[in-house]
Automatic annotation (TrEMBL):
TM stretches of this protein: none
NCBIfam families the record matches: PRK07236.1 (NF005566)
InterPro entries associated with the record: DHP_3-monooxygenase, DhpH_subs-bd, FAD/NAD-bd_sf
Positions of the 2,6-dihydroxypyridine 3-monooxygenase substrate binding domain: 165-289
Signal sequence, start to end: none
Matches recorded under Gene3D superfamilies: FAD/NAD(P)-binding domain
Name of this protein: Putative 2,6-dihydroxypyridine 3-hydroxylase
Alphabetized PANTHER family for the sequence: MONOOXYGENASE-LIKE, OS06G0597600 PROTEIN
Length: 397
C-alpha cells in the first residue's frame, strides 16, 4: 500500500499524538478538527499514564513537572457518612486535558491543523480516500485516521455504530485555591480520593494550575445514575431548550440544573459538599461506550475513542488513544509491501487491548455505580491499560 499523504480527523489527544508521530515518520499529515477554535479551556483532570505523556517526554523538551503534579495516596471514603474506608500508598501524577492538549498542539503547530472542518462524509477507492466537510469543501489523502472521538461520524458512516448510553452521567468541576477552607483543601490535596455512595461515586484529585498561574487546582467528577428517557433528556437540555447529545457546558446550563447539583451535594459529607458547591464552571457529560469488530477498513483506520469507546474509571482512555497512535505509526512505517499485513496485526493488538480495557472499566462501573464491593487497592481495579492476557475479573462481578 503506497502512502504519502495522511489525513487525521479529530485534533484532540488521539489525533494530535497520531499526527505528530506520523509526521516524524516522514508522512505529510493534515489534521481536520471540527471545533472552530483550539480546544483549550474545556476539560478537567487526567491521570498521567506513561503512554499519555510518552511523546512529550521522549520527543520534546517537556518536563513532566511542568505539566503534572504528584500525589502519594489513594483514599476511599463513604461520601455520605464520611466514614474512612481505607487509604493506600499510591504515587500517581495528575495533569489536565488543557495542559496536554495545549502542548501537543503547540508542538504540531497550526499550519496543518485545520479548525472548523467537520467531516460529514467519507469515501474510498483502491488508492485514495475522500473527506467531505460540513462547510462544503473536501480533501483527499492516501490514508485516513479517524480520531473523531466516541461519537465518531466516520465510525457511523462505515459501520453504523454509535456509542451506547451507560446509564449514568458525570458532573465535572474545578476548584481554585482560596475557594474552600484550607482544611478541606488539605483533605483533597496529595491524594486521589474516592467518595463511594450506594448509587454512584465521586473522585477528586489535584491538577496543575492554569497556564501562567502558580500552585494547584482541585478537580472532581461525580457520577449519577440517570435512567434513559425523560429524566436524562431534561438533564441534558440546555438553557435554550436544546437537548444536547454529549455535554452541557457551564455557560449552557440552566439555573435549575446547577441548583439540582448543589441540592444533591448538600447530602454529601462536608469535604465533598464543600468541593462541589465551590466548583467553577461545573458541567455535565453523558457516559457511553462502544465496541467494534474491526478498526481497519481499507485505507481508513479507527483510533482512540473512535475505535473502542471506553468509560473513564481506570483513568486510561487518553492513554489508550496515545497507545493506538504509537502502534499505528509503527505499522504504517513498515515497507509499502508489508503495510496491509502490519495494519492487520495492529488491528488485532489494538482490539485486544481495547476490549480488555472496556471489560475492566465496565466491571469497575458495575461496582462503583451500585454501592458494590470496591476494596482499597484491589489489583484488578488498578488504573492503567491492562496487559494482554491479564485477568480482568476480581471475585464475583
Ligand atoms: P476525543 O478527545 O473525544 O477527541 C475527538 C476529537 O474529534 C474532538 O476534538 C472533536 O471535536 C473532533 N471531532 C468529532 N467529530 C468530528 C468530525 N465530524 N469532524 C472533525 N472533527 C471531529 N478526558 C479526560 O479524562 N479528562 C478531561 O478533562 C477531558 N477533557 C476533554 C476535553 C475535550 C475538549 C475533549 C474533546 C475531550 C476531553 N476528554 C477528557 C476526553 C479524552 O480526550 C478522550 O476520552 C481520550 O483522550 C481519547 O481521545 P480521542 O482523541 O480519541 O477522542
Amino acid at each position: 500500500m503506497e502512502i504519502s499523504r495522511i489525513a487525521v480527523v479529530g485534533g484532540s489527544i488521539g489525533g494530535l499524538t497520531t499526527a505528530l508521530l506520523l509526521r516524524d515518520a516522514g508522512f505529510e499529515v493534515d489534521v481536520y478538527e471540527r471545533s472552530t477554535k483550539p480546544l483549550s479551556g474545556f476539560g478537567t483532570g487526567i491521570v498521567v499514564q506513561p503512554e499519555l505523556v510518552k511523546y512529550l517526554v521522549e520527543r520534546t523538551d517537556t518536563e513532566l513537572d511542568a505539566i503534572s503534579v504528584p500525589s502519594s495516596t489513594m483514599r476511599y471514603t463513604d461520601a455520605h457518612t464520611g466514614d474512612e474506608l481505607g487509604t493506600i500508598d499510591a504515587a500517581w501524577r495528575f495533569t489536565s486535558y488543557d495542559g496536554i492538549y495545549r502542548r501537543l498542539h503547540e508542538v504540531f503547530g497550526s499550519e496543518r491543523y485545520h479548525l472548523g472542518k467537520t467531516v460529514v462524509g467519507i469515501g474510498q477507492s483502491a488508492d485514495h480516500v475522500d473527506l467531505r466537510f460540513a462547510d462544503g469543501t473536501d480533501a483527499g489523502a492516501d490514508f485516513v485516521v479517524a480520531a473523531d472521538g466516541g461519537s465518531s461520524v466516520i465510525r457511523q458512516r462505515l459501520i453504523g455504530r454509535k456509542s451506547d448510553y451507560a446509564g449514568y452521567v458525570t458532573w465535572r468541576g474545578l476548584v481554585s485555591p482560596g475557594a474552600i477552607d484550607q482544611s478541606t483543601w488539605d483533605y483533597f490535596d496529595d491524594a486521589f480520593t474516592y467518595g463511594l455512595l450506594s448509587d454512584g461515586h465521586l473522585i477528586a484529585y489535584p491538577i496543575p494550575p492554569r497556564d501562567g498561574e502558580e500552585g494547584r487546582r482541585l478537580n472532581f467528577q461525580w457520577y449519577w445514575n440517570v435512567p434513559d428517557g425523560a429524566q436524562l433528556d431534561e438533564l441534558m437540555t440546555d438553557c435554550n431548550g436544546i437537548r444536547l447529545p454529549t455535554s452541557v457546558h457551564a455557560h449552557q446550563l440552566c439555573v435549575r440544573q446547577r441548583k439540582t447539583l448543589d441540592t444533591r451535594a448538600d447530602e454529601l459529607t462536608q469535604p465533598f459538599a464543600e468541593l462541589v458547591h465551590a466548583a467553577e464552571n461545573a458541567f455535565v457529560t453523558i457516559v457511553s461506550d462502544a465496541d467494534v469488530e474491526a478498526t481497519v477498513y481499507g485505507r481508513i483506520a479507527l483510533l482512540g475513542d473512535a475505535a473502542i469507546t471506553p468509560r473513564p474509571h481506570a483513568a486510561a482512555g487518553a492513554a489508550k488513544a496515545a497507545n493506538d497512535a504509537w502502534t499505528l505509526a509503527d505499522a504504517l512505517s513498515s515497507e509499502p509491501g508489508h503495510r496491509v499485513e502490519s495494519l492487520a496485526e495492529w488491528e488485532r493488538t489494538q482490539l485486544a487491548v481495547g476490549r480488555a480495557y472496556l471489560a475492566k472499566v465496565r466491571q469497575m462501573a458495575g461496582r462503583l455505580q451500585t454501592g458494590g464491593d470496591f476494596p482499597p487497592g484491589e489489583p484488578a481495579f488498578r488504573f492503567g491499560l491492562p496487559k494482554i492476557g491479564e485477568p480482568v475479573s476480581a471475585g464475583q462481578p
